[in-house]
Predict the 3D structure of the following.
Amino acid sequence: MTDPNAQRGRGPARDAAVVVARDHDGQIALLSAYFPRHDGEFLFLPGGRREDDESPQECAERELREEAGITAARWRRLGAYAITLESTARIHLYEAQDLTLGPQELTPTEQDFKLSWWSMGDALAAADQGRFLLPAGPLALLLADRTT
């Protein structure tokens, strides 16, 4: 079966991962950046596309380390969902705990990513207010909050 994205000239679909990183006080690591195409600053969880040789959790671990400068000793899978109906790619959601903080390893396109720590209640309120651009972050937050 051919990938619908490849048929449109976009290359094969790649899975992605998103991480709810929760510190020992229950605070959630959120990133923010200005997105000119959407004319605003939005919140998002660390995450991104899988590289060819990575498992979904390895992707989550790498993205958390690169974007937020965080490594985690405990991981919990929250689920996996289709990115769109037209793609075979899935987004894998994780919760990370027992965190160690280090430097962010941002690429040139990520240089304006700002890390901040939010309570789960405030993060969920921000999702309710439309402050997240993409749906995977709010979904991951809801699943992590529900299963605490």
